[in-house]
Amino acid sequence: MIKYIEETTDFLKEKGFESPEIGIILGTGLGQLINEIEIIKEISYNHIPNFPTATVEFHKGKLIYGKIEEKTVIVMQGRFHLYEGYTLQDVTYPVRIMEKLGVKTLLVSNASGAVNLNFKKGELMLIDDHINLQGGSPLAFKGVEKLGSRFTDMSAPYDQKINDTLEKIAKEKNIQLHKGVYASVLGPQLETRAEYRYLKTIGADAVGMSTVPEVIVANHLGLKVSAVSVLTDECNPDDLKPINIDEIIAMAAKAEPNMILLFKELIKTF
């Protein structure tokens, strides 16, 4: 993997991806932050050596380098998932590349379902902690200790200072920002009624199919991390309706402006 990382990093540096300060991963239906960026370079994933390729139709599949609020950023417009057939090492490979390019802070977004029924679709949740239900670890491979600490501490995977700042911004901007625990499952199927009850019992406030692998690797590499979930549906096991993916994407788009405002105001403080 070290050889692959070096090849990818060298390629991107040659293309002008120089010294980004902040990495951003945009989740399902959450690509409009790109419109706020002064784009300097952009490359499709399938043109980057050793990079996976996004296969989900609503994920664009581009790596973007540019400036926002006078800070240099590298943005993943579309991420990778285990349910696409990738390994956990594939899914988290871009985080390792961002770190090699110079990123110190990682901001993550995702679309998720509200397990906590006090949270409503169209609202945002700041991830305070997570539960890994994906059945594996992105650090469980031979030679991982050459890339960072094998036994990575996860007592505080999300940066408290950044999260405090986001909560302050949300209050100032009158944005409803819940705080809670995100459970990451394998997917791509949605949960059963019994599974939603289980998730609630173990302490999850929201559920999705991403984010946790990237956050684990970011901690492995010593990056500061913050993540926001856009709540696209309400997961009430006693009143569960058939899922409509188009409605989920539409709800993500409706809530996205608040997430963009939070990220932009946060980046101003760095």
Automatic annotation (TrEMBL):
> Annotated Gene Ontology MF terms?
purine-nucleoside phosphorylase activity
Is the keyword Transferase in the record? yes
The broad enzyme category this protein falls into is transferase
Q: Which GO terms describe its cellular component?
A: cytoplasm
**To which pathway does this protein belong?**
Purine metabolism; purine nucleoside salvage
The protein, known as: Purine nucleoside phosphorylase
Q: Which residues form the Nucleoside phosphorylase domain?
A: 21-268
Coiled-coil features, chain-numbered ranges: none
UniProt lists the family membership as follows: Belongs to the PNP/MTAP phosphorylase family.
**What is a biological process (GO) this protein takes part in?**
nucleoside metabolic process
Source organism per UniProt = Aquimarina aggregata
Instruction: Write the Enzyme Commission number(s) for this entry.
Output: 2.4.2.1
Entry keyword set: Glycosyltransferase, Transferase
Summarizing the function annotation, the protein's role is: The purine nucleoside phosphorylases catalyze the phosphorolytic breakdown of the N-glycosidic bond in the beta-(deoxy)ribonucleoside molecules, with the formation of the corresponding free purine bases and pentose-1-phosphate.
